[in-house]
Every structure is written in C-alpha cells, then in structure tokens.
Amino acid sequence: MTTLVASTRNYFAELWRAWNNFWFTPTDPATLALIRLLAGGMMLYTHFIWSFDLAGFIGRDGYTPVEFLKQMPGREWSVWSIFDWIGPNWLLWTVHILALGVFLCLFLGLFSRIAAVLAYLLAVSYVQRVTPGAYFGLDKTNCMLAMYLMLGPCGARYSLDRLWRLRRGDASEPAPSTAANVAIRLMQLHLCVVYFFSALAKLEGNTWRLGTALWWAAGNYEYQSLPLTWLADWPILVALFTHLTVFWELSYPFLVWNRFSRQLVIWTAVAIHGGIALFMGMITFGLAMIFANLSFLKPETVRRWVDPVASRVSLALVGKKVG
C-alpha cells in the first residue's frame, strides 16, 4: 500500500513538473518576434485595404449601419467597437490613419508592447464593426495573433526597439522569457482547437464525408485564381485529398506535439494553406494561417533562418550586428 501511495505521489509530482515546464520555462523570444513581424505586416496590409471604401464598410451609416447592428440580439452587451461612437467622416479617417500607424509600429517593432495592445483592441474594433457583412477567417486569425502577441516581449528581436537599445550601447542578448513561452503556448493550443473543431464541423457536411468537398471548392469560379476544373477528370484524387484534409485537421492536435511527426504536420499546413492562397485566391488568409503555424518553430530554428538577415539590416542601420 505504501508503494502504491508513493508511486501515485511521484506520478502527480512528475505531471505537475511537466505542466510547469510546458507553460513556464523561459524561452528565447525569437519565435514570438518573428510572428510579430509577419502578423504585424499582415494586419497593416489588411486594414489598409479598408481605405478604398472606408465610409462604406466602417462608417456609421455604411453598408451595415451602426443603428441596424445595435438591434441584433446580444450585440448591445457582447460586442464593442470604437467605430460605434465615431460619426463624421473626418474623425473616422483620423482614427483609421492612427490605427494604421499602430499596425505599422507593430510591424516594425517600435514601442512593441504598447503597439501590440493597441493593435489587438483596434483589430477587434474593425472586426466588430464589419460583422456580419465582412467577417472572415483572416479577421479571426489577425485577432488571434494580436491577442497573444500582446502577452509577451514580441519586440525583443527583429525590431526597431532592439536597434534602439543597441544604438544606446545595450548589446546584451534578449533574456529568455516566461511571458514569451506562455504567449507561444497559447497560440499553439488555439491552433489545435481551431483545426480540431474545423474537422468536426466538416464531418457534419455530406460533401466532406462523400469526398467531393474539394471539387465544390475548386469548381467555384468565385474563388478560382488558377483553373482547377481539370480535377473533374480525377474523382479519386479529389476524394483522397478531401479525406486527407479532414484527417490532418483531426490529427493536428495530437501529432503536432510529437517531435517525430511535427515536421510532417507543419509542412502539410504550409501545403494546404499555400494551396488555398495560390489556387483559391485567398492569399492573405493562407499566409496568415502559415504565420500562425510558425509558432511551432523552435527559437533556435528561427534564429538560424532570420538572424543573418537581421544582422545585415542592423549593420547597415547602426553599424553593429544583432539578432
């Protein structure tokens, strides 16, 4: 009996230790910084696009007037947006330009911690204003990445903040950060939830079970950027890719954590979302999801890829190499 109690106690002690190591082991902020650079650029671009019809999409009396949205059940207490209180177009454009400045700061890594918080609040405000008329997967991914970027030192590397510290004589390497690890872990778990429940939702549709869903997407001229109607002559291939997509999404939360299967899972994500970007015209969404999957890259891998470029940039700007 004593042996059983001791074994049980040791088991839970190991479990608790593994839990703490998973969440709270300080890590190099390189992965978080790379995602800030990529996601910040994506948010800058996607919100700049609203400028071509800002009053129509975001204006108080646009395609979905604020007063109309306020009548939707639950919106008065569950949804908020700074654009609900902005009336004149000059004020709308002023806020929009300031918001683009915030996204630019996040992209460049200037006042990164403040910019990350403001970028999240602004991204949510844009999304809540255009819902339900223009709310898609890209908007959700932008908000997801912005939410976790504000939790950690996303400007510790590959940023103007880092160059500014170097210019002032602080050449010390960014310290490993518990906050960076927490932010990355939350991002990883969020992705697992997204893929798993996406697969469950697909299984409720007949086309995914029958293996024809890929064809219905490929045959839709609204989304085609490259011709895919030749797939009509390859029904078995269509069925195979359709079922493989569902299997990949279902298995993602289980296989991505194993170091032996992780590379296959992530490269499959790159292939699937790259295919969506290339063949279905959803370039920004495809790239945003690839950026999110980079959260599974080890900081050592990120530094091996990005540090040489960052060193050249810093050498050109401040005369010193830095990661």
Spans of at least 5 consecutive residues with low confidence: none
Number of domains: 1
For the CA atoms, what is the radius of gyration?
Answer: 23 Å
Series of secondary-structure elements, N-terminal to C-terminal: HHHHHHHHHHHHHHHH
- Secondary-structure-based class equals mainly alpha
Global mean pLDDT: 90
Number of DSSP E strands: 0
Give the amount of beta strand, in percent: under 5%
| Sheet with the most strands, sense and barrel status | none
Distance between the termini: 55 Å
Residue share in helix: 55-70%
Q: Report the principal-axis shape.
A: globular
Helices, by number, come to 16
Keywords: Membrane, Transmembrane, Transmembrane helix
Pfam family, one: HTTM
GO cellular component, one term: endomembrane system
Subcellular location: Endomembrane system
How does this structure look, described?
The protein is mainly α and 323 residues long. It has one domain. The chain contains 16 helices and no strands. Helix 2 packs antiparallel against helix 15, helix 7 packs antiparallel against helix 8 and helix 14 packs antiparallel against helix 15. 31% of the residues are buried. The mean pLDDT is 90.
Set down the secondary structure blueprint:
Layout (H helix, E strand, L loop, with lengths): L1 H23 L5 H19 L5 H4 L8 H5 L4 H4 L10 H20 L3 H19 L6 H13 L10 H8 L10 H26 L2 H5 L2 H6 L16 H21 L6 H18 L3 H11 L5 H20 L5
Helix pairs in contact: 2-6, 2-8, 2-15, 6-7, 7-8, 8-10, 8-15, 10-13, 13-14, 14-15
Tags for this model:
323 residues; single chain; mainly alpha; HTTM-like
How would you summarize what this structure contains?
Residues 24-301 form the HTTM-like domain. The chain has helices at 2-24, 30-48, 54-57, 66-70, 75-78, 89-108, 112-130, 137-149, 160-167, 178-203, 206-210, 213-218, 235-255, 262-279, 283-293, 299-318. The chain has 323 residues and is mainly α.
